[in-house]
Write the C-alpha cells for this entry.
Amino acid sequence: MKEDDVILAVSGLSKHYKYYKSLFDVKKNVIKAVDGVTFNVFKNEIFAVVGETGCGKSTLSKLIAGLAGKTSGEIKFKGEPLDYGIRGKNFRKKIQILFQDPYSSLNPKKKIYKIVSYPAVRNGIIRKKDRLDFAVSRLKNVGLSENAALNYPHMLSGGQRQRVGIARCLSVSPELLILDEPVSALDMSISAQILNLLTDLKEEAGMTYIFITHDLKLVRHIADRVCVMYGGKIMEIAKSGDFFDKPAHPYSNILYNSMMFFDSKNKNEALKNKETIKPDGGKTTGCVYFNKCNASQDICGKLEPQLKDIPNGGRSAACFFPFS
C-alpha cells in the first residue's frame, strides 16, 4: 500500500482514566485503556482490531469516532488532523460508527424513518419534509421493506434493528465505517446475513471498515489486515493470510490457539500454552505481556518492545523475539 492510500493515520494515541481505589485513597490510580498505539488504515480495506475483553479495542473505536476525548496522540483523516470541534460536522459525516447492541443504540420513542433520516436532516443533505421517502430508500438498500419505516424499534427483530443501524450510518454517505462488535448480539444465521450485507455495501460504495471484534473466525473470512491488542497496546499488525498462517507475537499465537480450542488437532497445544502462563505480578515496566508470556526473557521485563516491521515477514510485531 502507498502512503497516498492512507485514509486514517493514528500516531501515539492514548486514553488514560484516573480513579481512586477507595474513599480514603489520596493518590489517583491510572487505567491505560489505550496506550500509545500507532497504525494506518488504507482506503477500501477491512482493518480488523481483535483482542480479549478489556484490551482497549472499543475505547479505540470511540476515540476515532469522537465519542471519547484522547489523553495524547494524533489522529489524521485523509491527511487532516481529526477534530470534532469547530470542523466536527464535516468529519462526522465521513466517519460513522455501528454499535454492538442494535436495540440500545436506537431511540425507542422514535419511528424508524425518523431515526434513519435524522443524520441527513441534521447535516443539511435533505429537507425535513423529504425524510420519509429518503428513509424508505435507505431501508430498501439494506433489505428492509417500506413498512418498517413507520415502526418503532421494539417492533423489529434484532437483525432488522441492526439493518436500521446500518441504514442510519449510510444516510450521510460515510467514507469510513467503524463496526464495534456488530454481530455479537445476534444469532449465527442473522450474523451471516448482516456480514454479507456489510461486505456487499462496502464493494458498492467503496468504503473502508474498521472491524472491532473478539471473534477471530469472523476476521478470518472478511478482514484484509489484522491488528491484535492487549493491555491497551498493539501486539501485532499483519495481513490476514499471514496472520492465520502463523501469528508472530506470543500473545497472538495463544489468542489464535484459543480460537481453535475445540479443534482436536489443536486442543493439546492450546492447553500447553495456557499451562505456561505465569501469574500476573502487577508488572509496570517492560513488555505489558511479560508476566503472562511463555516465551519471555530478561530483556522483556526491563525494556518495552516497540512495534517494528519483521524482516521478510510483511508484518509488524511489538516483541523482541517474534515467531518467524
